[in-house]
Amino acid sequence: MKTFIFLAFLIFASSPVFAEGGLGAATDPQTIEECGACHMVYPPKLLGAKSWQTLLTNLDNHFGEDASLDAATQKHISNYLMINAGRHRETPDRITQLSWFKREHINRRNWKSLLDRKKLSNGSNCIACHKGAEKGYFED
Amino acid sequence: MIIKRFIILPAFIFLLVSIAGGANAASPRQAILDEFSAQARQADQNFKNFSAKRGQELFLSKHSGGKKATPGCTTCHTKSPLNVGKTRAGKAIDPMAVSRTPTRYTDAKKVAKWFRRNCKSVLGRECTAKEKGDYITFMISQ
After folding, report:
1. CA distance B131 to B59
2. Which residue of A15, A55, B78, B99 is most buried, as measured by CB atoms within 10 A?
3. Taking CB atoms and an 8 Å limit, are A40 and B91 in contact across chains?
4. If we measure between CA atoms, which residue out of B91, B84, B80, B86 comes closest to residue B139?
């Protein structure tokens, strides 16, 4: 029964990825605190539930960084992100590996010069260009 | 009556300011240090006190056991604990020195979490209780 409610909620919560008024910000305090200690807090809808699950079960090697959490915090954040995840066909562990991201960014002719100009090594820090990214706004 | 009010109000304001300023943060920090001290003594009967100097050496040294991208504390925290540091993902890190960030080393869970992570990244192993105590003692002296 619990699983059923969870799944139902998952389907309900993963309504259109690009909902009107932005993607929606992460609102869970623990998620904001822990993820935000090192990098921008990504809106949960930017990845699918499976991607979040993979990331949250491999925090001891988080893109080369030890980002391990105590078991209770890890479970809490994992549940929050999976429930609020987006609906994506692809489930890579990097937002920058999603097809739409490549189409909108990496495959554009001026991508490399843009990274150079902004002194970025990759496309992971959305707020370098999209000031409202943490709040879920990417229109600019 | 009026005189009393003159005493109570400033006293109350002082209390509020000291809470907000983290002046009451000293005892949780001491409790954390005491715990490390007990652990250090358990590991070595001859252990006496933590040393800010040893802590400084740990902080400034380049280590080789950990990840290549993070050979030392200074990779992210800069060479001075008084400076604002930067995570590898580009976010600012409040200075490690207690004088600059008074809330540092007052939350035992947070202290455990960051030593666990960063000692593994920098040294390739967990830090000893002695190293942790030395490190905090150095940061208190800064």
Report:
1. 10
2. A55
3. yes
4. B80
Q: Is B89 in contact with A68 (Cβ distance < 8 A)?
A: no
The answer to whether the CB of B23 falls within 8 A of the CB of B104 is no
Q: For residue B116, which residues of chain A lie inside 8 Å, CB to CB?
A: 66, 68
How far is the CA of A66 from the CAs of A34, A53, B127, in angstroms?
13, 17, 14
Q: What is the pLDDT of residue A17?
A: 46
Residues of chain A with a CB closer than 8 angstroms to some CB in chain B:
36-40, 64-70, 124-125, 128
Q: pTM, whole model, 2 decimals?
A: 0.78
Quote the CA–CA distance of A98 and A47 in Å, as a whole number. Answer: 9
Q: What is this model's ipTM?
A: 0.74
Question: In chain B, what residues touch A125 (CB-CB under 8 Å)?
Answer: 89-90
- Cα–Cα distance measured from residue B98 to residue B82, given in angstroms and rounded to the nearest whole number: 9
Per-residue pLDDT, averaged over A99-115, amounts to 94
Tokens of B50: 């933590």
How far away is chain A from the Cα of B9, in angstroms, using its nearest Cα?
35
Asked if B87 contacts B93 with a C-beta cutoff of 8 angstroms, the reply is yes
